[in-house]
Amino acid sequence: MDKPGETREALETAWPELHRKWEAWAEHASDADMNRVVEYKSMLYGELARTPVWQIILHAVNHGTLHRGQVMGMLRQMGIAPPHTDMMNFFLEHPVG
């Protein structure tokens, strides 16, 4: 069996469940959960680092923006019109309430 990320099909199978787990965690996260400090070894500096969960989440979202832009640029270079990735388009397609 393929591991997630090894093939597109494996990723397409694993992603929905991972996404559901993130949503479930976020729905029930308290202020204490968001402010909890996580300790880890920094890949940049090789030293112990400490970061609150809310900053890690913002970093992940922000970093995803970089990669979406890179993929859009690659698709355009290949002559493919990329899909809309603008946040406002997402909100229009998925209205709240």
Global outline = extended
The largest pleated sheet is described as: 2 strands, antiparallel
Q: Strands of the biggest beta sheet: in what spatial order?
A: 1-2
* Helix content bin: 55-70%
SSE pattern: HHEEHH
Radius of gyration from the alpha-carbon trace, in angstroms: 17 Å
Number of helices, counting only DSSP H or I runs of 4 residues or more? 4
Question: What is the residue-averaged pLDDT?
Answer: 90
Number-wise, the strands total 2
Low-confidence stretches: none
Strand content: 5-15%
Question: What's a quick, concise take on this entry?
Answer:
The protein has helices at residues 8-28, 31-35, 53-77, 87-93, and strands spanning 37-41, 48-52. It is mostly helical. It has a domain at 1-35.
Which keywords apply here?
two-stranded antiparallel ribbon, 4 helices, mainly alpha, 97 residues, 10% strand
